Amino acid sequence: MVGPSPPVSPKSVYRLADYLSLDDLKSLALANLVSQLTPLNVAYELYSDMATYYVPVRDAVLAYAVDHWKEVKDAPATSEMEERGAAGELGPATAGTGMLLARKLAEKLGK
């Protein structure tokens, strides 16, 4: 007897949908990914290979981080990613993400 299948990662579904040019499925996968974001995990997702490679993913995760910055800035994951970035452990493309985050936060705080 076969049991129920384990849930599939929305990031895996997004990659497959992108490869197959299934825009509706990409939208569903992205919505599911965003629904799983929390102030405790968003920094990991923001600086992930997924967010670096897929601009719509980066933009959605970035928007979440900015909207929840009050909680995100004090999260252990944020401190960890800052340390990893300072140590050169993140890819060079993440520098652009950091700059976008700074710009979006400055725009939000400037209002």
Topology:
Elements: H1 10-19, H2 23-35, H3 42-46, H4 49-53, H5 55-67, H6 69-72, H7 76-86, H8 94-110
What this model shows, in words?
- It is a single chain.
- With 111 residues, the chain is mostly helical.
- Helix content is 70%, strand content 0%.
- The protein has helices at residues 10-19, 23-35, 42-46, 49-53, 55-67, 69-72, 76-86, 94-110.
- Helix 1 (10-19) runs antiparallel to helix 2 (23-35) and helix 5 packs parallel to helix 8.
- It is globular.
- It starts with 9 loop residues before the first helix and ends with a helix.
- The mean pLDDT is 93.
Order of helices and strands: HHHHHHHH
Helix content: over 70%
Category from helices, strands and their pairing: mainly alpha
Unreliable stretches covering 5 or more consecutive residues: none
Alpha carbon gyration radius: 15 Å
User: What general form does the structure show?
Assistant: globular
Short structural description:
The protein is mainly α and 111 residues long. It contains eight helices and no strands.
Tags for this entry?
single chain
